[in-house]
Amino acid sequence: MTEASRPYLRFLGTAETATVLHDWHRWLQDNRGARAAMRRARSVDEVWLEEAYSRLRLPLLPLAGFRDEALARAAIAVAEVSEDTEDGLAARAAASTHRGRAAVSADRIRLMLGAEDPDEFLRLLRGVLAMLDREVNLCDVADLVLSSHTPGGRAHNRKRVMLRYYETADPAAL
């Protein structure tokens, strides 16, 4: 496959790339030091230094095109996830808690989705993941971060996540 003919990287709905991401996440869960280094990273400059990033990047090179900065931020976000779930971020955020409220408020989700800077988006996403006990769909998180690097991707994220949030939220919990 030539550079020009490779599709841009996506994880949701793409079996090969999703398998790479899940395998990498399993490896990361088994390697506490690598996981801790990825979670400590505050910028992409810190990620380049980690072997863990190369373990994700290298198997993806022949499968899809991507920007290294976007993949590095996605790797940081995925490292924050402790347990992969079927439900994506929007559905998990809208789920009612024992207090009868959404796990994450619509305002916090809007704030995260409104971030224009990819580093700011990542910072806010990490906070949301912590509120969800680090349990969310890996592919959904990775795709959210990858899309946050372009204005069109951010607009798509806002639409997709907010529509899904309100579709799954209990109206009484909002």
Short structural description:
This protein is mostly helical. The chain has helices spanning 15-30, 32-40, 44-47, 51-60, 68-80, 89-94, 106-113, 118-131, 138-147, 151-168.
Topology:
Elements: H1 15-30, H2 32-40, H3 44-47, H4 51-60, H5 68-80, H6 89-94, H7 106-113, H8 118-131, H9 138-147, H10 151-168
How many separate domains?
1
CATH superfamily heading: CRISPR-associated protein Cse2
Number of strands: 0
Low-confidence stretches: none
Total DSSP helices = 10
Structural class: mainly alpha
Q: Quick one: CATH class? A: Mainly Alpha
What is the rounded distance between the termini?
48 Å
Which architecture would the CATH scheme give at its second level?
Answer: Orthogonal Bundle
Radius of gyration: 16 Å
Q: Give the mean pLDDT.
A: 93
Shape: globular
Q: If you consult CATH, what is the topology?
A: Peroxidase, domain 1
Main beta-sheet strand count, sense and barrel state: none
How big a fraction of the residues is strand?
under 5%
Q: What pattern of helices and strands is seen along the backbone?
A: HHHHHHHHHH
- The portion of residues assigned to helices is 55-70%
